[in-house]
Amino acid sequence: MNRENFFTHLVVLAPPTTAQPLIRYFMQLNARLSCSAAGDAAELDRLSQACGGGARLVSFGTDLLVPPAILARFAFGAYNFHPGPPAYPGWAPASFALYDGATTFGATLHRMVEQVDAGQIVGTELFVVGVAVSADLLSTQSTAAMARLLKRLGWCLANQSDPLAPLPIVWGENRGSKAKATRLRALDGAPGEEERARRRHAFSIAEFVYPDSMACQPGGHGVPASTRR
Fold first, then answer.
1. I need a labelling partner for 11 at 20 to 30 A (CA). Which of 1, 66, 77, 199 fits?
2. CA atoms of 70 and 192, how far apart (whole Å)
3. Residue 222 domain-assigned?
4. Can you tell me the distance from the alpha carbon of 72 to that of 78, in angstroms, rounded to the nearest whole number?
């Protein structure tokens, strides 16, 4: 039996303000597709079992860690939109990119595996970092890049039963973490005013709360135009 006959359901893992516009968008791309939204681990666990293996998971704008046992239930793969380029996997990519003085930034679509931001990369959307840009603005721009990436690859996610083709791109070694960000935000141990200024500029976000910073409002940067009302 053709593998495509079994691809029936798409589960969207996203904050509530993002999930419903995404579901509308995917259903515009494939009217026969059944879609559900999960906002937390319990709901994701329930949906992953209810779908009976004929589903794909798409994660957008959430830092929820999905256990391997749940990932394994999605026979048609699990994909995550990461708010940073492959060079910056992990936590607070915008801040670490600014701290390093990166000249390009963007968004990445990749397969989800047990380790965070380590699966095969299937899409990227890059842009040039502006002069004197803040971490907040860079995060907003990466959300817009995620939306452009979604517009490019959304049809494949909603219609293609085969796995999305991996790109010959590997993740960078500069993996961000909450502990590393917290350490760099502490200015007491910074060697000199130049380093302190560099840290203040890069880690200026009040709190590193990933879902809040990545939530996409209907009609905002994070939702393709065809879903706006």
1. 1
2. 47
3. no
4. 9
Residue 100: both structure tokens together: 């390093």
pTM: 0.86
Separation between Cα atoms, residue 60 and residue 14, nearest integer Å: 5
CATH code of residue 77: 3.40.50.12230
Torsional class of 40: left (φ above 0), alpha (ψ -120 to 50), beta (otherwise): beta
| pLDDT score at 198 | 84
Domains held by the chain: number: 1
Residue 228 maps to a domain = no
CA dihedral 155, 157, 160, 166 (to 10 degrees): 110
Helix (H, G, I), strand (E, B) or coil at 217: coil
pLDDT tens digits for range 29-53 = 999 999 999 999 999 999 999 987 7
Span 69-86, average pLDDT = 96
> pLDDT tens digits for 128-141?
998 878 889 999 99
